């Protein structure tokens, strides 16, 4: 009832959305979604935050091992299932907003997250991709980059875990070279660790 008398109520929704974004960036809360605490302040803040597509576009798929526990209702809780639902909700709320994606794909990825060993985004709106993990899972993602033109991708970081032979990386290196040469026309930032590829593909 008293919200109309509050100075904050008079802030334009776009300006308030920018304030949310600044808050999330300054507190390093874009990927962990802790900025969503702001949605609990009031109904207006909730509505504005839910429609702030840019804030939902920072997607982190981590490498947590699946842990299961039985709740008081005897139902099984799977953190990976919850994580997948969270990512799908973010994709829906982000809409066509350029995505910033961080993928950590270990060798023993849970069955629930196997879907993320292939391209799960629209190649037209992927803005930044940071990829780390073991060769088999990295191969699938890099293969998707080689097979699809990503016209919006400006930052690509690939980090293969150390301890694997150079021969293991050759397939990924060839695909990476194809992607760099043909499918990433707007790439501006590139970081490659533990991968071999043809440097001439950058010309």
What's the structural blueprint in terms of helices and strands?
Blueprint: H1 13-26, H2 43-50, H3 53-56, E1 58-61, E2 69-70, E3 76-77, H4 79-94, E4 99-105, E5 126-133, H5 135-147, E6 155-160, H6 170-183, E7 189-193
Parallel strand pairs: 1-4, 4-5, 5-6, 6-7
Antiparallel strand pairs: 2-3
Total number of β-strand segments? 7
* Weakly predicted, low-confidence segments: 65-72, 165-169
Strand order of the largest sheet: 1-4-5-6-7
Shape field: globular
List keywords for this structure.
single chain, 203 residues, 5-stranded parallel sheet, globular
3D architecture notes:
This protein is of the alpha/beta class. 34% of the residues lie in helices and 17% in strands. It has helices spanning 13-26, 43-50, 53-56, 79-94, 135-147, 170-183; strands spanning 58-61, 69-70, 76-77, 99-105, 126-133, 155-160, 189-193. The strands form two sheets. It has a five-stranded parallel sheet with strand order 1-4-5-6-7. A two-stranded antiparallel sheet has the order 2-3. It is globular, with a radius of gyration of 20 Å. It starts with 12 loop residues before the first helix and ends in a 10-residue tail after the last strand.
Concise structural overview:
The chain has 203 residues and is α/β, with parallel strands linked by helices.
